[in-house]
UniProtKB/TrEMBL annotation:
Location of the Lon N-terminal domain: 263-342
Signal peptide stretch: none
Lineage: Eukaryota, Viridiplantae, Streptophyta, Embryophyta, Tracheophyta
Native source organism of the sequence: Forsythia ovata
Database matches in Pfam families: DUF674, LON_substr_bdg
InterPro entries according to UniProt: DUF674, Lon_prtase_N, Lon_prtase_N_sf, PUA-like_sf
Protein's UniProt name: Lon N-terminal domain-containing protein
Length: 342
């Protein structure tokens, strides 16, 4: 089964979600969700692990599971047992709950297994593999039989499919606790978060589709703040931080009123800390010179590590990588402070 979602299906699979946000702490308290979203997050529990790995990619998984996936994928077929297929492990079918679920992550709905019995009508044996032989008469078990669903599947109450009923609104917390919305549960939730200023609360409606679903799935594996984690990644850039007094002294700015933290926005820059370890910073180009100057002259982050030798200055650790990157950057990207040379 192909589990990659096409752009067309992505556009069709959108569900609404209302977030209640505390603007002071910049966190999502909870989301109000309808049946379709709750069915989706419940379905994550039935999703095969290999499917999650293939959807999120190597960078989205915790630990070494992606290496295990790659090992199976790269293993030569000559090492696989006859009658076995690597797709059983790499592309397993999602568990079939005998009911329809809005799958935002999968293009195809899970299919039920076909079952077979002995073609000589030997009773007591059933298989899902038509090439199997009957233990009784040794004939092929290739006679198709019908799997009868439980009676409740056909009841009117389940016509909408999914797992939960659609007559109520559900509360989904930042750590993915799900419960029906009620006045008491809402008040209890505000009390748990110690919300005293109702005016700081803001309601925002969002649409959740394929991309958002993948981010939510990834956040749920990396953090206990699935909604806030995703919003932080979208809205808050990474920063280098130093004290305001130090920043003022280095860049000849007016003295600060208080020794607050100064934030310098960042763009991707790899710094080698030691063999095999690379720190990826995020630095905007117009702040590049400030970052370079501060890294090379202060011990606020890594410390300035220089040793003088007869042949000149020997650069140790990550500082050598910083200097190398500085020399490669065009002068027009630098903001040179008065009286200073590059």
């Amino acid at each position: 089964m192909d589990q990659k979602c096409t752009k067309g299906s992505m556009a069709e699979s959108k569900v609404s979600l209302k977030l209640l946000i505390d603007t002071k702490s910049k966190r999502v308290l909870f989301a109000e969700a309808r049946k379709d979203f709750v069915d989706f997050i419940f379905h994550i529990l039935a999703m095969p692990l290999a499917t999650a790995i293939s959807l999120l990619g190597k960078q989205g998984m915790v630990g070494c599971l992606s290496n295990l996936y790659d090992s199976v994928e790269n293993l030569d077929d000559s090492y696989i047992q006859k009658g076995q297929n690597k797709d059983v492990l790499l592309k397993p079918n999602a568990a079939n709950p005998m009911t329809s679920v809005p799958l935002l992550l999968l293009n195809d709905k899970p299919t039920a297994n076909n079952f077979y019995s002995c073609n000589r009508n030997c009773s007591g044996y059933v298989t899902d593999e038509p090439t199997a032989t009957c233990p009784n008469c040794r004939c092929l078990m290739n006679k198709s039989i019908t799997n009868v669903a439980p009676p409740h599947v056909n009841e009117k109450s389940n016509e909408d499919g999914g797992f939960v009923k659609g007559v109520v609104t559900y509360m989904v917390t930042d750590d993915l606790k799900v419960k029906p919305v009620s006045t008491i549960s809402s008040i209890t939730m505000l009390s748990e978060f110690n919300i005293k200023d109702i005016g700081s609360l803001h309601e925002k409606e969002i649409k959740v589709g394929m991309n958002e679903a993948l981010k939510l799935l990834k956040a749920s594996l990396h953090s206990n703040k699935s909604f806030s984690h995703r919003r932080r990644q979208q809205q808050e850039p990474n920063f280098l931080r130093c004290s305001a007094s130090s920043f003022s002294k280095k860049y000849h700015t007016n003295p600060p009123k208080s020794d607050d933290v100064v934030e310098l926005p960042l763009f991707p820059l790899p710094l080698v800390l030691f063999p095999g370890a690379i720190l990826h910073l995020q630095i905007f180009e117009f702040r590049y010179r400030m970052m370079m100057h501060t890294l090379l002259q202060t011990d606020l982050w890594f410390g300035v590590i220089y040793t003088n030798s007869a042949s000149g200055t020997a650069e140790v650790g990550c500082m050598g990588e910083v200097i190398k990157h500085e020399r490669l950057v065009d002068d027009r990207f630098f903001l040179i402070c008065k009286g200073q040379k590059r």
